[in-house]
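Working notes for the structural subgroup meeting. M.R. asked for a predicted model of this chain before we commit to crystallization trials. I am recording the input and output together here so anyone reviewing the notebook later can reproduce the run.

Input as submitted:
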Amino acid sequence: MSAGALRWWPLVSFAICTVAVTTYLVLGYPFGPILLSLVIATYTLARRERLRIAVIAAVIALPLLAVRLFTNPDALEGFWGLVPALAWIVVPFTVGLTRRLVVDAAERQRAETERRAVDDERLRLASEVHDIVGHGLAAIQMQADIALHVRDRKPEQSAIALEAISRASADALAELRATLAAIAPEGGAVSQDSRAPTPGLTRIADLCARKRESGIHIDLTITGDARTVDPAVGVAAYRVVQESLTNVAKHATERHARVGVQYEPDAVHVEVVNPTASVAPIDEGFGITGMRRRVADVGGEISVTSAGGEFRVAAVLPG
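Returned structure, recorded in token form:
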């Protein structure tokens, strides 16, 4: 009996081995190495065949193996004569079934882990696109409102607003291409047109400058010895500031914010504070949830509070 037959036709292999061993014992031959084939076939049956069919086949095999009790005068009588047959079938069947359950559980766990990894990557990409597109659209909407408001009285101001819209859309598109390039296949079309610099702590000043152009008054303070941090930490810090300023543009009662970046020996503190008149509980939508996830992914901590007329986002990142 070949290993391939055992693997791909376990039921057929088990049937052949059962008939062969039964015939061997009925003819009066003593126990011998032939029984090993039955043990292996039984293990393989429980390991690979459908459980219901495997159980039925094993139950049918037991009385066949017991035929020797009526044909071989040397066989033990009663229950003790059944013990060898039970051992050759029940023990390897139990071992095979146990191995099958363990392997199936491991495969389910692996599939679940892979599914979670895919879901996490989708969520990360969705959060990245949300930050980029949300930031760009908020700036565009603000400048468009300004252009509509002053188009008749101050045409020159309208032109400035349109220029800001053009820059905001170009920046958002470039950053979106860079993000998509990171997940595109090597040499793909997306990667050929992705020249936007990677978001990070060094670009927070540029981010604040662009937001000022869109009509938000921002006080930026950077303290401590600026240094290079892990790229993932830099991206997380940048996105926290970006999302917070986008929320200022969309929800704040006053378009004013204080942005602080403080370098400490083993951490970087990032804080964005803006005035608020709301006393309602904070509704943590996709943006705040995304900030929390980003900060947690790099091992940092973040707090989002609203008290004393101020809305505050404060993150502590390793660095």
